[in-house]
Each structure stands twice: as C-alpha cells, then as structure tokens.
Amino acid sequence: MALSSQTVLQFAPSPASLSSKVHPLVIFNICDCYVRRPDQAERVIGTLLGSVFPDGTVDVRNSYAVPHNESSDQVALDIDYHHNMLSSHLKVNPKEVIVGWFSTGFGVTGGSALIHEFYSREVPNPVHLTIDTAFRNGEASIKAFVSVSLSLGDQQLAAQFQEIPFDLRMLEAERVGFDILKTTSVDKLPNDLEGMEASMERLLALIDDVSKYVDDVVEDRIAPDNSIGRLISDIVASIPKVLPPAFDKLVNDSLQDQLLLLYLSSITRTQLSLAEKLNTAAQIL
Predict the structure, then answer these.
(1) Contacts of 278 (CB under 8 A, 6+ apart)
(2) Quick one: pLDDT at residue 3?
(3) Could you tell me if 96 and 61 are in contact, meaning their C-beta atoms sit under 8 angstroms apart?
(4) Tens digit of pLDDT for each residue in 31-43?
(5) From 199's CA, which of 117, 135, 251, 275 has a CA 20 to 30 Å away?
(6) Distance (Å, rounded) from C-alpha 270 to C-alpha 267?
(7) Average pLDDT in the 150-173 region?
(8) Where are the domains of the chain?
(9) Cβ–Cβ contacts within 10 Å for residue 163, how many?
(10) CATH of 9-172, one of 3.40.720.10, 3.40.50.1580, 3.40.140.10, 3.40.50.10070
C-alpha cells in the first residue's frame, strides 16, 4: 500500500547562531539622519555596512541613509544613490560590505518586506535594524530581525521577520552621549570635562558597590559567590602597579596634550576665519 504524500506549510529555518553587534556610531548616525529628514517623510531608511564573523555574528560599524518614497502599497528606493554611496564608502573602508538595512519607527511596517527583498538581492540573509526614534518611556527600542521564508511544499508564499539577539556595546564616553540622546530635551550638550566627570562618578559608584559586596561577604552578611570573586580578582590583577608620582605625571602629561590640541584647534579656526574675511574683502575691492 503506497503512502500518500502531504503538502506541509512550513518556515525555512534561519541560522540559529546568527546575532548582531551594533556600534553606537551607527545609532547616532541614524538618529541624525532622522532629524535631517524631509518634512514629508515619516521615517528614514538606509544601508548598514560592516562584516560577518565566522561564528555568525553580524558586526554593524557604519551606515548611510537612502532617499525613498513609500505609500500603503509600494516603496520606491533611489538605487543609483545607494550604489554611489556604497562605492564611496568602499574607497575609504574596502573591508566593509553590506550587511543589511535600517529603518526608524517602532517595529516592522508593511513596506519593510519590499525593502528587505531588495537588500536580499544585494547580500544573502540581510539584517533589518529598527530604531524607535521617539524613545518611548525614555528608552530606545532597538531591535534586529532576519527574514524567514514561509513555503507550501516547493512554493514560497511569504516571508516573516524573526528577531535575533542584539548587542550594543559602548565605551563609557559613548554611553554618556547615548544617555544624553535618550533624553527628550536638554539645555546643552556636555563638554569634555563634564563627560569625564559623569564617567568618573559612574566608576566611583561601581567601585562603591564592589567594596560594599566584599565587606558584606567578609562580615558573613551575604553568602559568597565564587564566580563574582574570580571576576573581582581578575579586575584587581589587571590594574597596572603604578606609583602615585608616576600616575600623577601620566595624567598631567595627558591633560597638557589635550590642552595643546584645543589651543592649536582654536588658532586654526581663527586663521581660517581671518583668511575668509580677507578673501571676501579682496573680492569686494
């Protein structure tokens, strides 16, 4: 007796190890493009550049916006602009390739499938990054997706966006800027000294938390955790043994170098301003 064949509706599996790592410069660039968008545009879309690690992690390091027009049933991309920008980026960073595309707004919209189909022709299995530029509840909702095909037998019917792990790793100086970016309104951006002060205050707070934990363990107020103890030991061992006079000299030398750069940049701006005024006066005369 022959077995009857059945047609099964199924999703094509996506790479299980696929994840995304985004540099904060990409987030800043996307938010800047959103602020500078045309008045009639509701959202901004663009290309993500970076590389793919052997373990499947997509490292997003750069981006640029692509002009587009979209309605309820169609999307039009400026493909020539996209290719020209890609060619310019490859001249500066030849190792960066297209890894996906981004869009502003909360989650995936109806036209995202059409745009994702275009980028699927540019690179296999592109990543779709969404950024909620409204910063609802004081937090930036940043998500990464890949497309999973829905097929009926051998016939592909549609595609579904599946969320993948997202990692946004920042240095402490970058975190200060990102925290300012999350605020809906600020009086002014912090200067270098204010940013350093905020970083030092956060570092001191973390040191106080570690010191309190160690004291609680020593006084038997809490149970010790071997994994935390090893981490603290590794951190203490990684601190270079520098004498206080040598440390003060190192800090002072670095501060003097920064002040010298500020002084030179101020002189350069003054010279450029004088040269522009002299050039303008010469053309008038």
Answers:
(1) none
(2) 40
(3) yes
(4) 888 888 877 777 8
(5) 135
(6) 5
(7) 69
(8) 9-172, 190-239, 240-285
(9) 13
(10) 3.40.140.10
